[in-house]
Predict the structure.
Amino acid sequence: MTPLPDWLATAETGPLLAARRRWRRADYLAKTLNDIQTIMAEDMLQTGVAARPGLLQPLEPRSKVLGTALLLLAVAATASLPALAAIHALLLAAALASGVGPRPYLLRTWLPALIFAGLVVLPAAFSWVTPGDPVLFVYRGPGPAGLPADLAVTRQGLTAAAMVLLRSAASLGLVVLLVKTTRWPVLTKAIQALGVPAVFVMVLELTYRYLFLFLLLLADFLLGRRSRLVGGESARAKLEWIGGTLAGFLRLAGEYSREIAAAMTARGFGGPARSAPSARPGLGDAVYLAVVIAICLALVGGIHLD
């Protein structure tokens, strides 16, 4: 008979033993399934945000697209850090007034800007790339391994890096607000109504629609693989299955594209569909565009403020 463990045989109470935590890499099948579920949930949440009342939701889509385009041009043209900072404050206020939470807005705006634009402009902050007034010395004197002397962070370099970073984040913020407060089918029709080629708009619509279909098919692939696994899986087996799945999905995408084209032709499709949003611009859209034009003039005029 197997004896009972000491902690079960004793009647005395005491603190529980601390659990040992060991780092384990997440299963790639479970991680990918969770990511697919997150994408689906975020799309449903975005549809709900675009349907709820807010500051930007009632505006006519063509007015929002035109206003966003004007603001993008103005943000790219300004060279004033205070003006860019003011734009970020206005965008955050508009996101809050439109029902877009601060956390989703900041994650989709500042995180990509810091990762991509921040890494690109980071060397510009140093004296080797942007000479100027030193703010912080990394080292002084002869550089190690034959590098130039006196590596420092310069004021001019920090200004240039901050300018690029603020412009990138502001541009992302404008696009995020446009997409978050407008349903995708309505947005594509508004883009087409403003002169974007219909073929490009049709490709966007089909890509968005069938992207979720392929995600569902991928989820079925992953569930099937996971349900048939017994025990561990070697790294080579994982790579072989991932490579085979990618090849199968490329073949599947080609087959689906041919079937979709044949189905559209069979139903009488002879060229890009042309349609415009049914809603007409109102007084609110005129006020919105007037405010946008005023902001653009202030941003462009801010070039001469520094």
Notes: The chain has a mean pLDDT of 81. Strands lie at 134-139, 151-154.
